[in-house]
Every structure is written in C-alpha cells, then in structure tokens.
Batch of 2 targets.
Target 1
Amino acid sequence: MRETYREFYRRSIEDPNSFWGEQSKLIHWVKPFNTVLDYSRPPFAKWFAGGLTNLCFNAVDRHVPVRGEQKALVWISSEVNQEKSYSYRELQTEVQRAARMMQYLGVKKGDRVIVYMPMVPEAAFVILACARIGAIHSVVFGGFAAANLAARIDDAKPKLMITADGGSRMGKVVPYKNLVDESIKLAQYPPENVVIFRRGLDPNMQLVPGRDFDYAELRDKHLGAKVPSVWLESNEPSYILYTSGTTGKPKGVQRDVGGYAVALAASMKYIYCGNAGETMFTASDIGWVVGHSYIIYGPLIAGMTTIMYEGVPVRPDAGIWWKIVQDHKVTVMFTAPTAIRVLKKQDPAYLKKYDLSSLRYLFLAGEPLDEPTHVWISEALRKPVIDHYWQTETGWAILTCAPGVENTPVKFGSPSFAAYGYNLRLLHEGTGEEVGANEKGVVTVAPPLPPGCMTTVWGQDERFVQTYFTSFKNKMVYTTFDWGIRDQDGYYFILGRTDDVINVAGHRLGTREIEEAVNMHPNIAECAVVGVADQLKGQMPLAFAVAKDASKLGTPEGRKGFEKEVMDTVDKQLGAIARPKAVHFVTLLPKTRSGKTLRRSIQALAEGRDPGDLTTIEDPSSLEQIRKAVTGLNAE
Ligand code: PRX
C-alpha cells in the first residue's frame, strides 16, 4: 500500500537523517557526503556535509547523455513577439560560453556576480554559468530602482554585473543599462566590469570604455568553450537573494548548493509531480525566489522543459497563458494569485478557447489566495489548484499538499499542511506555547530548517540568528513572521504578517523601506507607510506624511503636485512597484508617548476597521487627521 502523507511527514521529522539521505539520491554527487546533517552549531544546519556536487551540472549536464535533444528552455516573449527554444545540449553550450566569458573577465569561485536582467534566455545562461564555476549570483529584480540596486551592490561587493540594454513591459521599453550606470555611480563598491546583452531596445545606450563589454562579442570569442563544472562542497554558497524585512535594509538570503539541489529535486517529485520530459510553466520573474527555484533550477534538475515567459498575462489577450499551455503541453503551472485575479476580470471565454488537457496542476503562492479566486480558477480549469505557502528564506514550500505522495483533498483558502521536513509549530505570540485548533499563532519552525532553506544572512551570521531565531524567550525557533491558524482537520490558513512587511501583487516590500524612500524628498519631515487591502493586488502601500514646509498644501493643485513629487521620489529610490497608492498629508502622526508610530492603528483606520487600543496615544487628534484623510479613500 502507498504511504500516506501523514506517515511520510512523520518519517521526515522523526528520522531526518534517513529521510533526507534517501532524497539525496535524486541528485548527482561526485563525492558522497560524510553526514546527512551536521547540526553542531545551532541554528546553522549543514546538510550533506563533505559531499561535492554542482547545481549547474545537475540542472544541465546530467541530462545531456539521456535527453540532449529535448527542449530544456523555451523562451516566449509577448513583449517583443519572439520565441526561442534551447535543447539541453544547446543550453550546455550556451552556459559554457557564458562561464568562459566570466572567467575571461576574472570571475572566480566565490566571487559575486549581480544579474540585473529582463526575462531573456541569456539571464538563465549567466545564472547557470555562475553556478557552474562556483561564482555566487545575486539576481536583482528589474523593477528595482538605482538606489536600491546600489544598496545591493554595496552589500554583495560584486566582481561583475550583467545586464541588458533594456526590458519591455506592456510594449514600453524599460531601460536597464542606464539604471545600472546610475547605481554604479551611487555605489561605494562598484564592480570592475559590466556585461551588457544588447536586445536593440535602447539604441542610445552608451558603453563605458574599459569597463563595459558586449555579451554577443564576448560570446563570439568563446564559441567553443568547454568549461567543466567546479565541484563545490554542499554548504558553499550558491547565491544571494535580497529580500525585505522589518528594517529598511534588505537582507541577503544566502543559499547552499547540495541542500538546495536535493530540496528542489524532492519538491519536483512529491509536490509538483513534474517528470522528466514534461513541461513546467512558472509565470514569475527570475528576480524573485519563485523564479530561481521553479523557472530555473527545479524544472531543469528534474529534466523537464521550462518555459520562460516575458510579458503580462493579458497581452496580446487574456488567452496567452492558456495558449502556451496548449502549444507546449504544459503539465504543471505555477504563478501568483494576483495574476489569477487579473484574469478573473477578463472574458472567461479565453479559458475555453484552448486545449488544456495536458495540464495536471496549477500551483499558486506568494500572497494569500482568497477563497473566491481559488473557487473561480478551480471551476474554470477543472483541475486541482494548489495553494502553497513559502518564503524567499525557505526556497521551497513550508505549507503545501504533496500529491506526489498522497492526493489529499484541497480546502479553499488553505495551503494544506506542513511540508515534509518542516517541524512546524504555531506559537502563542506572548507565551510561546503551542496554540490549539482554531487558535491564532505565529507560524514557526523548530530547527534545524530542512535542506534548501537559507543558511545565513550574507556576511552577517549574527543578524541571521537575531532576526529569525530570537522572537521567543528561551526557545530557539525560526519565525516566518506570519500569523496562522490550524483548523480541526489539521489544515492551515495564513492570516498575514506579524511584522511591517507588505505584499503588493505577490511582491514583498518592507514599509520601512518605503518610508525611507518617502523621507528622501527634501520637504518631508516624517512619514508612516502602511499596507492597505486592495482587491486586485492584495495590498497597496499608503503613505501619511508630515511636510516640513506646508505652504504648498493650501490648494488641491498644490497637494496633488506635492503628492506626485513624493511618488516620483519613491519610484526613483525603490522602483514603481513600491509607489504608494496615495500620499496623505497630515500635521502630526499618531504616536505613543514613547514616540513609537502607531502603524497598526493607522492601518486599521485606513482599512475602515477599529483602530484598537489607544490608551498609549500621545495626541488623539493625530488619529482624527488619519480618519479624515482616509474617509474619501474608503468611500471610493
Ligand atoms: O506573508 C507570506 C506571503 O509571502 C511572504 C513571503 O514572500 P516572498 O519572500 O516573496 O516569497 C514568496 C515565495 C512563494 C510570506 O511570509 N505568502 C507567500 N505564500 C503565501 C503567502 N501568504 C499566504 N498564502 C500563501 N500561499
């Protein structure tokens, strides 16, 4: 009889050594590890210590002898109307060219390479090339602005940056190279060189002599390159991916090599049910963790064809994704709930127009999946739609069902159960004790974290421990910073963040980062940014600001003009994805007597809820100003 998920899960928690030892066989090791888990320095977990492997070898080379002519990567751009495919053999060739190009520019094992690229195949080549030679890639989402990019440059201190002349969004060119130039001017630790992949999107782009190199020219020099994989100890860093937290300073989530490869291989089998020779379509971006794990590494490690899509889900029309499913016989698809909410507003006929018989599952993650959207898409597709919950930090699912183990029924609005390997605990915020069924608690994981999860904060071990493992007194547990609840049947529901992180269309942003950006406007004295519920995007930032000189605010035009200036400042500092929905000007922010801004009360008012306990407020009239400012908003 087949093992139930409950038994499978129990094995993973009670005997992690034998469980993960078994899973380790899903990937290739050139030298076997000494121990499955070295947990001699909690909470730092070293998986497969002593083992030698390589992510790129597992994603590419391993498949060439058996499926060399099978498509590995299919790139479809509805932005520039192009489509290109690469077989595993061709991918291997391109990756080696890119690897040699980096070596030519002096990149060695352990060096950081920042990748700031649109969704083009070359981005996948350079990411895999880094993995091949043991360079540490740090992909930065193309929507981030120059100042943001500069902060990441200074933290990662890259040897090299790789970019493109431009990207395209909704048919509009988005310059990348100019932004990289600007970020390098702002950075204290700029890279020595920049490689630019020219798409012909920005013909006016200028090269800096001696520093900048053209991707195509370098590639031409190394057409026959043979670059063997560098074997890495399982715990050496593979990449850094920056993500937002409570402070204004993004954290560099560091990932290992062997643990990540095993975790992804196992997830392809037990969660996504993605088999070699089949096709996976993850509609996300390489700048996010979902892109790292399930556009690039996961499906390739599994020997699948991966689809890389540049474009939005409604252009040229709302059938484009379903056409891709039909034309490429996609078996598993993965995206964020926002995209589904966007599609829900379109003509449902688009879903009936294409043959979706190849599709087995649609997975959703990145933000809460509301029940009406879950019901709508399940009924429209007539396929299982699986909500699963995870974080940049974990690299793969924390809560999910695992149809590759057992077909458990899905409950709408719930990402099901703890994924195998996660010793999940819902803890009472105050006491740190486990809560019972239907009681709200903080979602935590008793360490060690399973393979694939972050191993530390880049260059800051102390910050890793401080940030993630010290929320509860006398208890070292990993906190996700999410509230959750478990029902009587054992299904979990995520109720939102416990910290100041918000989720805009599946993009994770720190309200502190946005506040810092707003404060960059020379006429802002102080501000508070909160996330407010938004029907389409899940949440949107909303800013309340105090002006230094309020003389401009006397007229509606003056206010509008000032609001626009503040929004432009945010665009420039962080990028348009962080732009507040509105900026309300007040003369005072609600604060406690000790000077702490009452963000929760502001947020409650902005969402038309009760502001809660206000006994500590310094000046109640401040709250009145917020109430007045948002009244118009709630009436919209
Ligand atoms: O608050 C949770 C929310 O997104 C956060 C992680 O975002 P990010 O680091 O960008 O990683 C996304 C990886 C898929 C979480 O702390 N979140 C993610 N998935 C869900 C979710 N909230 C509710 N339901 C989900 N399925």
Note: Residues 516 and 581 are 16 Å apart (CA to CA).
Target 2
Amino acid sequence: MKPRILVAREVFTDVLDFLARTFDVSSNQGDTPMSPEALAQALADKEGALTTLSERIDAALLAKCPKLKAVCNIAVGFNNIDLEACRERGVMATNTPGVLDASTADFTWALILATARRVNEAEAWLRAGQWHGWKLKQFLGTDVHHATLGILGMGRIGQAVARRAHGFDMTVLYHNTRRLSAEVEKSCRAAYVSMDELLARSDIFTLHTPYSPATHHLVGAKELSRMKPTAILINAARGGVVDDTALVEALKRGTIAAAGLDVFENEPGLNPEFLNLKNVVLTPHIASSTEATRHKMAMTAAENLVAALTTGKPPNLLNPSS
Ligand code: DGY
C-alpha cells in the first residue's frame, strides 16, 4: 500500500505523475481553496500534504489529522503553517527556498518601474481613448536611475533586488535584522543603515521580509511619516508587514508619493480604497509567477514530500525535532 497524500491545490501534471510513483494521490485539481473543515476531512486519512499559502495548517487542523507526517508548502513563505503545532504533533514542515529568488526580484523591478513611471495609469488612460496627442507634461514620473533604493530585509531576494539596481546606477541602502558580511555587502554594493535612516533616505523603499508576529505592521503610520513625500513603497513580500490602512492614508494625504503592491493584508481581499487611488500599482500576488519558477516551486515541494515520507529527512525542513 502506498502512503496516501493530498495535493491541496492545482499543480502541474508532471508533478502529479512524480508524486504518483510513490504515493496514492488525492488532488484538488479543481483548484477551489478548501474550507478548514473540508481540508481537515480531506487530510483525515493522509500521511502527507502538498499545500499553498491558502491552506492554514494549525493545531486545530492537526488535531483532526492523526496520520499526517509531512506538510510541504509550495512557497518560500510559511506563515500559513504553525511550525510549533507541527513540531508538537511530529509533523515535518517544508518550504521552497532559493528557486524563486530571481523571478521575485525581477518582478519587484517590474513594480518599481511601473510605479515610478506610471505605466499602468498611462495605459488605462490610453485604452480609455483619452490620448489625443503628445504633451510635454504628460504622465510625468519619477526617475529610477541614480535614485536611492532602500531595501528592508536583505535575504536572498533582497540581495537579488540590490544586484539588479546596479544597472540603474542607484545608491543601495539596506536594513536587516543582521548586518551582512563585508563580502556580500560588496557584491550587492549595498550599505547597511538603521531603519530610521533607511526610511528617511530612500527614494524607493522595497520590503523583502517574511511575515511573522515580529514583522507584523513593521511599516505603519509612524514609519510612513518618516519617509520622503516623493518616496515610492514597494511590497512584493507579504501582506501584513505593511499596515495597509495606514498606507492608504499616507497615499491619500501625500505623506508618500506612490506604492507598488503585489501582496495585501487579508488576501485575496484588499482594502477597497486602494482601487480608487491612481498612485498605486496593484497585482495579485504573482511575483514568483513565471512558468519555470512556479514549476520549480511545485516540484521542490513534491521532492520534499517524497523525501519526508521515505527517509524522514526532507531537504527543506523548517522544524527539525532536535
Ligand atoms: C512564496 O513563495 O512565499 C510566495 O509568496 C508564493 O508565491
């Protein structure tokens, strides 16, 4: 008898085929997010699960899934998983670090450029048939080249964003819980500064921190008030790291100039006021979404699940038992 597993959301066919070599696979290829009750029911007789950010794995769910041994997230972020609850129940949890850094950094740049140069706003205006000729002052934007880029969170993705800034001749500053080695700072051409200095000096301020209780509303009204009125805020990291209500206010009042957002508090819901603001670029959590990268993420998660249930040693284990 093969171990039973659940693939909680749609994945690529070859990933399902790969899993089927080792497991008896049930999968939600209809891709409708499952309610906590439906998820618990589907996992009641399963040893493993391939999950995404939309599945909350907490103590209440685990109590209903006595056979579960491994939860493998198709994401680098794992704020949907209560690691401590998993550890207590002997459930291994894994993520997919590394495979999405470059695509996420590329997309951060898409947001930076689209926001600074008002690409979406100008396109919507053109599509609405409003363009009747060239004007000197049409859609005046903000220069990205030679500006100061501030990076909050200098892990792999933050560093990849920093390296891409060299082509724009930017000054790169960063703040991180730990200062990077001199060698890494040199390769990123980035200078370490305090959070206050980062807020005060950035023309473009981009976040690359995970979400946790420690980073909840790391950027709120107080932090926004320290930024330049010309500053642009970019968030392709996690909703909740920025206080969206405070951000809406700051954008309305001109405390900062604009924002490019791929993530939101309470996704897929978002503060409806964002929709009425012209100085925001909004995308639906797609920073890692290229064909190649989403495929690598799903396959990495599948490989973690096979390793977890066959050897007990998945490569990307988040909660070692000792
Ligand atoms: C991640 O990997 O955490 C991303 O947010 C999912 O695209």
Note: The mean pLDDT is 98.
